[in-house]
Every structure is written in C-alpha cells, then in structure tokens.
Amino acid sequence: MDLHTALHAHFGHAEFRPPQEEVVRTVLAGRDVLVLMATGEGKSLCFQLPALLRDGVTLVVSPLIALMEDQVAGLRARRLPATCIHSQIERGEREARMAAVQGGTVRLLYVTPERFRVAGFLESLRPVRIAHLAVDEAHCVSQWGHDFRPDYTRLGAMREALGNPPCIALTATATPRVQADIAAQLRLRDPVCFHTGVERTNLYLGVHEVAAEDDKEAIAARRLGEVGGPAIVYFALIRDLLRVEGSFRRRGLRPLVYHGDLGPGERKDQQARFQAEPAPLILATNAFGLGIDKPDIRLILHWQVPRTLEAYYQEVGRAGRDRLGSVCELLYLEQDLAIQREFTEWANPDREFLGRVSAHLAHLEPERLRALAADDLRAVFLGRNRHDGRVETCLRLLRTAGCLEGEFERDLAWVRTPTPDEISAWLPEDKRENDLRALLAMVRYARATSCRKRIVHEYFGFAGPESGCGSCDHCVGFAEWIDRELPAQRRHPVLVLASSGVRRGDWLEIQGLGLCEVLRVLDGGATPRVDVEVAESLERRSVDLRRTPWRRIDARG
Fold it and tell me: Is 373 helix (H, G, I), strand (E, B) or coil?
C-alpha cells in the first residue's frame, strides 16, 4: 500500500499537508526526527501513519491523560489499533490493555512520562517490539522551555532501556535553544528537523494596555459582542476566573469554566460541552486547550500576561485551525507582572530549600510519612503562605529522580536521598535568570510599538515580515481587518443564559412524584433545561423547567 492510499484508507484524507509526507517517509526510513509544526497543522499524523505501516508498537509519550484519551478515542473511532495506559484506569483494565499490546493487536500505545516510574512497566514492554518512540509536546523535555516537566528528562534513558528505537519528537513552539536541548535530552542521532515556521496569517494579534482591572471586562464584553464564539478567555489565577464568571453571568452570558479546582469529571464535562456547542464561551486556566480539536475558535483573550512568548503563541495557536480569521488579544495590566514573577520564583526554589525539603522527608518515620498531608508539609516550609508553589516543585523533582514514591495520606514512601550533585543538576544556577528573561520578552511583545508578528518570528529564530504583517494591531485597524477576514456571516454570538432566568448557584424547589426536592443549579442552558445537583444526595441530573413545576427559593429549607 503506497502512502497516499494508506492516508486515505486510514484517515480519509486525499492529500498530505506539507511537510507531512516527507516527515512520514523519513520516519519510515528509521531516522530520528524533530518536528516543529504550528498547532493544528497535523503533527500527530506524522507518527500515527507510520505506526500503521510498520510491524511493532509505536510508544507515544503525551503530557496529559485527557489529551491522550482524546487521541486514542479518535483513532479507535476509525477502527485503528490504539490504546492508552494510565493511573485513572482500573488495574484489571490496565492489565488487559498491556496484554493486548504484548499480543500484537495494538500498534499505538499512549502513556504519560510518569508511567515509566511505575514498577514493572518497563519490564512489561520487554517482549514487545518498539518500532518507534514518539514524544509529543517535546518542549516539556527542556528546562529552558515554557512548560518543563521533570519526568520528560528521563525519556532519553528510557529510550535506551527500550533498545534505542527511532524517535520522533514533536512540538509547536521551541526556540533554537530549546530545540538543541530536545535533541540532547532525547539522545537524537543526527536528527532530521522539519520546521514549518510560526506564520499564521489568519490570526489577528493585538494588545490592550489597561490602567485598571475593571477596564478588562468592558474590553472583553465588547470583543465577545463583535467577534462572538467559540471563544476562550485565559486566566492566570482561578480567583480572577471565578470573579469574572459571576460578572459575565450578570451580563447575561453563559460561560463554561475549566480550572484545577474542578474535579476530573467536571473538567471532562466542561471540555466536552465546549467541543459540542456551536459557539461556546469558556473561562479557563492554561491547563485547558491541549487536545482540543475545535477548528473554528474565533476569539482568544488573555486576561493576564503569560509567562513566555512560547506559552502565549501555543495558546493563541488554538484559534482559527479552519484557516479562517480569528482574533487573539492580550489584556495587559502592568501590575499583573507580579503574578508571573511569583510563578517564576515558585518554579525555581534554590538548592538550599530543596535540600531542606529532602532532609525533612528523609528523617520522618515511615508511619508518619504515610500519614503526611500535603498541607502539613507546606506549613512546615511556607507557614501561612500556602499558595507558594516551591514545595510542589521540589516534590516533582524528587519523584522524578525516584527519591519519593506514593501518595500523601496513603502510601508516601522515602526511597533515597539525592546527592548535592544531583540537586545542582536539577536546579541550574541560570534557570531562574533564563525564566525572567523569557518573561521580559513577553513584556516587550506586549509593549511593542511595531509589528507584533515580526517580534514573534524573531523570537523563534525566523525573519519577520519586512513591510508589516497586515494582521496585528500595529499594521492594520481592527475594524478593517475583521470586515475583511471575518465578515458578519461568519460570526456567531456566544450563548446566553436560559430563558428561564435561573443562574448558576440558584436554589430551586422542584415538585416531582409527590416529593419536593431542593436543587442547586450548576449551569443553565440554551433552553430552559438546566443541570442541577440534588441537595441531599449530591446526585446530578438535568431538568427541563418547561415540564416540571418549580420555584426559586432564597436558601435551602
């Protein structure tokens, strides 16, 4: 079967996008490959198609469980032999999936990098022929990248333990320094690099510099009215997200929400609804977006300045994957820089701090360690400042190195104490300085007085447009651009609250089957159907207020 026949048979596409075909041929030739391709340009096909054309298993490392589950679901919907193994699957099901891998009925196996720390996982792969190792979101390998994940640094050693299969590393955003670090960390051998650049001509980039927090809401409301949805508003802090959610609801909007304080089921539900609804608005932290396959996102707003241009450009890259016009704007308030400065400090504890955390855990009796709560550990080192993230950074480093295993208040166990040399390697002296320089580059972008896309291009090592890009706020007026690239017939207003007038947090009394139930509204809908939670049992259900007698009450009673 030739490549074009295989492409159509497995994925239904008539043609490759450039440079997909060349990447696939290079992977099939057994070369190590580094792919830097804009979000939505089809990176995944570069390892998925070769996996179906060669014997053996392609082991795919992905940073998020939700992301790999979405990819596996998409492959299985096409009847392609893929599966994933992760901690949220029951043990029996994990064993069944591994048996399928060992039995040769699976071609693509997705795991997170943390899976390699699980006892017995590597051994279970010994009888399996690993044809390729695919590392998705490969910028996570690098301490100089915007989303460093310590477990990614072990992948070079894990690759060696698997017999050094050919490796394909993929990312949308990586500076030249990060690219070099990816190649070094993954031990790529004379890798062939494919880079499609960072040009997205259909994205309008703009910045609104504001004097006060209240100004942001007026600008956001105006843009939501002018552009419509689907729309994402990104926040650095959950407390700001929740405050704006309430304010938007008072304006009659019906935003979805996605943040770390929601349970896994709630996050999954909000993501699914964003995917399914025609023009949703979602308020989210930066955890939202990886794996989102919604091609028509028309508006992305950033409520606070991100930490790096890499992070910012990856997030705005989720807009306009249908190649139609989309608006990406940053609401820049200088005081917000303090938030990202704080995040930078938390991500860079000094060696002395990590040594103290390590020594404290090492000296706890096993019984006390098993009973230890995360908040107790934070209290020891941070006092009342429980939001300081340095302890979490230390724990990630210790877990990655195999010094700490298990979970708080269950089976936490100390394995070994790291050496001073190890700690020095984990915390390079110039890491904090590099992170601060990356934040400074983001500030320069926000305060630029010339073409913003030229700044982005130069940051990633490319020559920018010579005579203006025609799609940023310094090169073209917003009204002119939107009339040209996003005419009125392509704009869809974001959803508003249900006509019943109920809002999230309202308490309702519902009459049904002779019983009176008190319900808390979790969300309204585009119709009078609302999602509710039964006060006594916490059971969740959907209720159509057109067909059920109900009344709003002030409080539970």
Answer: coil
Complete DSSP assignment for 12-33? --SSPPTTHHHHHHHHHTT--E
How many other β-carbons are positioned within 10 Å of the β-carbon of residue 326? Answer: 25
Q: What is the CATH number of domain 3-195?
A: 3.40.50.300
CATH 3.30.428.10 holds for 203-336+442-490 = no
Task: Assess contact for 223 and 327: CB atoms under 8 A.
Answer: yes
d(CA 137, CA 61): 9
SS3 call for 512: strand
Angstrom distance (rounded) from CA 282 to CA 262: 14
pLDDT in tens, 60-98: 999 888 788 888 998 999 999 999 999 889 999 999 999
Counting Cα atoms < 13 Å in the Cβ hemisphere of 443 gives: 14
Tell me how crowded residue 358 is: count the other CB atoms within 10 A of its CB.
Answer: 22
Q: Which residues contact 269 (CB under 8 A, 6 or more apart)?
A: none
Tokens for 181, please give them.
């670090």
Q: Give the strand pairing for 326-332 and 203-209.
A: parallel
Could you tell me the sign of the dihedral formed by the alpha carbons of 69, 71, 76, 81, in that order? Answer: negative
b/e burial code for range 15-39 (CB count within 10 A of at least 16 → b): ebeebbbebbebbbeebbbbbbbbb
Rounded Cα distance, 469 and 452, in Å:
8
For β-strands 529-534 and 540-544, DSSP reports them as antiparallel
Q: Is 126 exposed, middle or buried (0-12, 13-18, 19+ CB in 10 A)?
A: exposed
DSSP string, 316-352: HTTS-TTSS-EEEEEEE-GGGHHHHHHHHHHT---HH
Q: Tell me the two tokens of residue 59.
A: 């082991």
Counting Cα atoms < 13 Å in the Cβ hemisphere of 1 gives: 13
What is the Cα–Cα distance from 254 to 296, expressed in whole angstroms? 19
In single-letter form, the type of residue at position 247 comes to: S
Question: Which two tokens mark 352?
Answer: 């002395």
At 390-433, the pLDDT tens digits run 999 999 889 888 899 888 988 899 999 999 988 988 888 888 88
10-residue averages of pLDDT along the chain (557 residues): 89 91 95 88 92 94 86 92 92 94 95 90 94 94 75 92 95 87 94 87 95 92 91 93 88 86 84 88 85 86 93 90 94 92 87 94 92 90 80 90 89 92 86 88 94 91 81 94 90 63 64 46 51 62 64 56
Task: Extract the tokens encoding 439.
Answer: 């934040």
pTM for the model stands at 0.78
